[in-house]
Amino acid sequence: MILAKIALGIVSTLFVAGVYVLREGVMRLEVDDYHGNGSHVHVWVPAAAVPIALHLAPKQKLAHAIQEIGPWLPTANVLVQELEKFPNADLIDILDGENHIQIRTSDGKLQIDVREPDQTVHLRLPLLGLEDLTSELEAMHAASETSEFLAPDLK
Amino acid sequence: MSNLNWNLYERTGLLTIAVLVVTPLITPGMPAGRRTGSNQTSKSAAPDRWLHIRVVNSDSKGETVRVNVPLELAEKVLPTINKERLQHGKVKIDQARLNDVDLHSLMDAIHSAKDGEYVTVLGADQDLRVAKQGGQLLVHVLDKSGNHKSKNSQVEIKMPMNVVDALFSAGKDELDIVAALHALSTQGDTELVSVKDKDNTVRIWLDSKNLTE
Asked: ipTM of this model?
């Protein structure tokens, strides 16, 4: 009886975690290089894991990166929030001979596709997860301004 | 199976269904009505206005650039960009480059004047027409320097006067881009800029479609 309750608790926790991960979506990066032997890099990361990974990243390096992109974070955050209002839209389409670049939103994901004769790159970023990421980075940048985040030598 | 266990499973099942139903509704930052469909216009809300830019190069590679921007998005994002002359959605005008022309006075004069053609220059190489008609400022330039008629360049600009007014509504040395975008969002479907020459075609227009035609 106790074992059944424990099992039920674990299953419920996994289920709720699963729902949370599904809600945040999955970030996908696919890079296919057709040069010579070629390389194929396909990365799938749950968007929910990214803010957690930010807290685990080396603070010194992260601080430097946040300082670099800091001025653009409010723009990125507003852009993502606004893009969420347009879940299916073609935003940019550049066709130049055999090269094709497309940036669009599809089913609440930001899609960036680059097709060249010798390489293709596909990036899928769930807007909801992206908003959490930009908000998290913005909070970190704000904290860095008030010396809560940065190491003294970077101030 | 005891009644206690059965009640527990029943409650868990109900909770699961409740979570599945409620989760899409409580998703922050994304209005439920906008999550599913490609058409963002609801029956009660005003349709979204889109600014479209299309550049087509007719050379052998046939380069094409299509940009579609929701005006609402541009209105919200522009004020967050503070870089060089662009500050809080306003662009500083460099007076040195205007050769002492007072743009605000010029626009006031055009605004208060009646409809008509203000500037007409018919030259050997170029024709220029500036006119105000039906609440719109019209600029037409025809560059005839090409050897053949088909190689002539043509520029047509059609700007609603309330957009021009909004653009100059900021301080003396500023252009208020956000105010102009807001004024533009109240306009109906219209073509704003059209440029044609032997190699390129550029079109900028406004409508309610989120896809390039």
From this structure: 0.77
